[in-house]
Design brief:
about 280 residues, 2 helices
Length: about 280
């Protein structure tokens, strides 16, 4: 029996040795087919950002001589489902030296324009002194959102960003698309107030301006081509169309006491503009 065991062990060692000797180095083509696709894809099933604050500081102020100032947006929450981010590096001659980034979602995007904590206070966009990090007590509100106000973008969107060696004649820094597919893109905004004066002598403590119960923008088709040019950021909106705009529950003047003047509807809007955004 001992001799038989030794024979089996010896045979196994010879077989293993033969298998090892049969291995050989893989060339690049074989490795590519073995490892699978190039690039990187990140899928985020659910993203929920709460109590986001954004501050933009203008260091030199207005050209009229005013000092530096800041614009602050407080109490923003963002909910996105099934967000897909793809990253790829160009290697072919046509896109050599490029990094391609794609961002898309087919689901709704919801922006909560208030504090969703135990005591929601509503979101505020205000202007105040440079370096201000909060609106409350430091800035004058110019836009206010009611408690539980939100903006919903339905139908999804996509954005493609090209970084690096682009063909300026045919390629763009960014292209952004809303709608145009099987599902129409719609935007709904609730609880917006545009404040003109707050706490004047004639309206002490009152919010005076324009109040909008619901703003709905329907059947949106947007294809924007965005480029960085010498004059700033250039946006080409050719091919953009909007089926209809509904502005409902409009209040003018004292937002707390005045009755609504009714609803306003717009239809058949198109855009074919080149917009340039620059600093001054």
């Amino acid at each position: 029996m001992n001799g038989f065991k030794k024979l089996v062990l010896c045979t196994a060692m010879i077989a293993a040795s033969g298998s090892a000797m049969a291995m050989q180095a893989m060339d690049e083509e074989s490795m590519s087919s073995t490892t699978g696709q190039d690039g990187l894809t990140i899928t985020i099933n659910s993203s929920d950002i709460q109590d986001l604050g954004i501050t933009w500081i203008d260091r030199d102020g207005r050209t009229t001589g005013d000092g530096a100032g800041a614009v602050t947006i407080d109490n923003i929450g963002v909910t996105i489902s099934n967000l897909v981010i793809t990253v790829d590096a160009g290697s072919a001659a046509a896109n050599s030296g490029q990094v391609l980034v794609g961002i898309s979602t087919a689901d709704d995007v919801t922006v909560h324009l208030n504090d969703r904590g135990a005591t929601p206070a509503g979101a505020v966009i205000g202007v105040g002194a440079a370096g201000a990090t909060a609106v409350s007590g430091t800035s004058t509100p110019i836009l206010k959102f009611a408690d539980n106000a939100q903006m919903v973008i339905s139908g999804g969107f996509s954005a493609d960003i090209k970084l690096g060696n682009r063909n300026a004649a045919t390629e763009h820094f960014m292209t952004m698309d809303f709608g145009g597919g099987a599902t129409a893109t719609n935007l709904t905004l609730t609880g917006l107030s545009i404040i003109d004066t707050v706490g004047t002598a004639a309206n002490a403590g009152a919010d005076v301006g324009i109040g909008i119960g619901t703003l709905s923008i329907n059947d949106i088709v947007v294809h924007s081509e965005i480029d960085v040019v010498a004059g700033g950021l250039q946006i080409n909106t050719a091919g953009t169309s909007i089926g209809s705009v509904a502005i409902e529950g409009v209040v003018l003047g004292d937002l707390a006491t005045n009755a609504s003047i009714g609803d306003i509807y717009l239809t058949g809007l198109t855009s074919n503009s080149i917009i340039t955004i620059a600093g001054h």
